[in-house]
Task: inverse folding
């Protein structure tokens, strides 16, 4: 049976983690075997990345981009093996995040693509679309680290360019309530995965 590596993407505050979990739960409930992954990972490299993102470790954007690429490679065998075993992979972020975020931060799109050339590319991308204004409001409510408005706009624009490089992209209005976003994702995914049966 053909399976898919599905990546849930969007700028910070879009609700990726929540929607990735809901999608995996929905797939599992209807008989599919599912593996959840997320970036950064829980490994040593992923831990260092989180320290840097929290500003507890100082490093350049170039080094951070390379760490993301290295962390991503630790998932490669896991994702490939899962798909070969008939397991769906649902990921909270993927290489697409680096192509958008690091390109926005560095302005070196070709270099970011090159350092990620060995990463597993998602079969389907679910892009949760929200405005930078909504993103900042949500992140502030959660007392989380957030980017400034200018950078979020750059990332959103970078996503628009990056998504053109992928064949299967589902764009969902993330300004809706959580349940409505989840339902829209399921509805749009059925276009790419006809065998999926998402009945309550």
Result:
């Amino acid at each position: 049976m053909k399976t898919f590596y599905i990546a849930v993407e969007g700028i910070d505050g879009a609700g990726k983690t929540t929607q990735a979990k809901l999608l995996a739960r929905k797939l599992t409930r209807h008989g599919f075997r599912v593996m959840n992954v997320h970036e950064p990972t829980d490994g040593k490299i992923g831990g260092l990345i989180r320290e840097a993102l929290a500003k507890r470790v100082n490093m350049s954007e170039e080094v951070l981009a390379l760490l993301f690429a290295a962390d991503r490679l630790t998932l490669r065998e896991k994702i490939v093996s899962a798909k070969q075993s008939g397991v769906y992979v649902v990921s909270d972020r993927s290489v697409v995040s680096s192509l958008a975020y690091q390109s926005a931060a560095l302005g070196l799109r070709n270099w970011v693509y090159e350092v990620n050339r060995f990463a597993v590319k998602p079969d389907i991308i679910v892009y949760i679309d929200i405005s930078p204004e909504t993103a900042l409001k949500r992140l502030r409510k959660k007392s989380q680290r957030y980017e400034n408005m200018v950078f979020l706009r750059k990332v959103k624009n970078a996503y628009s360019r990056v998504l053109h490089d992928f064949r299967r992209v589902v764009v969902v209005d993330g300004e809706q309530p959580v349940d409505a976003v989840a339902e829209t994702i399921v509805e749009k995914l059925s276009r790419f995965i006809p065998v999926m049966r998402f009945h309550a």
